[in-house]
């Protein structure tokens, strides 16, 4: 082989290798890697990749959820590498829209998980995977009716009025009770997602309503404050109490009987189903525009099960 031929072959190999090496990469980019919730997404994404050889998966995210510019750069880098697909949990609905559009224009399929993008990004991604908060609220309401029956007082401890997740989660919880029972609803009260505020509000509610049969704390800080107030009031195990989300404090409340159950969003499913959706698009298959990643109702009986452990954090 002449030197000229060798040089031409080397040049051709150099041109081919980067594309070939990265053709099967699916880049999973989350809001931050410094969170058990997002590490559960990583576990789900890894589970989706296992057992097949066409694709590899990379997992990345900025140091904090507020580092939006860093997340934009991670998506830019993935596009520049020529990845096959992207699974993205956007930290900001507007700031990430232009780079998702660039991925679309580059022929790279994108699945959005957890949080939606603004109107500017409409039509530039193939699937949105998130919790159906209305369905989640109904799930908790059904569990409440199972626990207390169809009569009595149930308090609703909410977080921020008018937020999209709150409208679905709390609205559908109350609508289900109104349509399927004679339960009297106390509240909702709004903690502004402050644990201390929820604690004080719950303390007042319990004192003013000694006949309360049930109570629902609709997000993590609210449910933690609610649980602490129930314990301080000596009411643990004396009324049906349900929380939302799954950190260590809430898990402890389930284990000791302060809470009947916690509804935990499917972080594992976001990673697993997000990667699967992108692989389906790459394979030329159709995917649903919205995929509900669901909630797991975690109780003392199932808290150690694989299904629960996949979503707790």
Automatic annotation (TrEMBL):
InterPro entries: Peripla_BP_I, SBP_2_dom. GO terms for cellular component: cell envelope. Residues 26-285 form the Periplasmic binding protein domain. It is found in: Cell envelope. Its main location: other. Residues 1-23 form the signal peptide. Transmembrane segments: none annotated. It holds the Pfam family Peripla_BP_4. GO terms for molecular function: carbohydrate binding. Keywords: Signal. CDD domains: PBP1_ABC_sugar_binding-like. Coiled coil: none annotated. Belongs to the bacterial solute-binding protein 2 family. This is Monosaccharide ABC transporter substrate-binding protein, CUT2 family. It comes from Paracoccus seriniphilus.
């Amino acid at each position: 082989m002449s030197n000229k031929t060798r040089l031409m072959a080397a040049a051709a190999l150099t041109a081919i290798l980067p594309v070939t090496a990265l053709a099967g990469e699916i880049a999973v980019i989350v809001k931050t890697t410094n969170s058990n919730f997002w590490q559960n997404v990583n576990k789900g994404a890894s589970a989706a990749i296992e057992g097949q050889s066409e694709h590899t998966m990379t997992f990345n995210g900025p140091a904090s959820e507020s580092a939006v510019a860093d997340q934009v750069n991670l998506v830019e880098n993935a596009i520049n590498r020529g990845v096959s697909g992207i699974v993205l949990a956007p930290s900001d609905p507007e700031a990430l829209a232009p780079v998702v559009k660039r991925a679309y224009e580059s022929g790279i399929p994108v699945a959005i998980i957890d949080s939606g993008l603004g109107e500017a990004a409409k039509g530039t991604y193939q699937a949105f995977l998130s919790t159906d908060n209305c369905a989640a609220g109904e799930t908790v309401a059904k569990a409440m009716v199972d626990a207390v029956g169809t009569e009595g007082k149930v308090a609703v401890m909410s977080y921020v009025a008018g937020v999209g997740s709150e409208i679905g989660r709390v609205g559908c919880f109350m609508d289900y009770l109104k349509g399927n029972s004679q339960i009297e609803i106390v509240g909702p009260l709004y903690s502004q997602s402050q644990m201390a505020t929820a604690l004080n509000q719950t303390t007042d509610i319990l004192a003013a309503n000694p006949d309360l049969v049930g109570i629902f704390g609709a997000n993590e800080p609210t449910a933690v404050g609610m649980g602490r107030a129930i314990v301080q009031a000596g009411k643990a195990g004396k009324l049906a109490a349900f929380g939302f989300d799954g950190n260590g404090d809430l898990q402890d409340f389930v284990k000791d009987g302060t809470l009947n159950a916690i509804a935990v969003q499917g972080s594992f499913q976001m990673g697993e189903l997000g990667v699967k959706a992108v692989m389906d698009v790459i394979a030329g298959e159709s995917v649903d525009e919205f995929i509900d990643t669901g909630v797991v109702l975690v109780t003392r009986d199932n808290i150690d099960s694989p299904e629960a452990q996949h979503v707790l954090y």
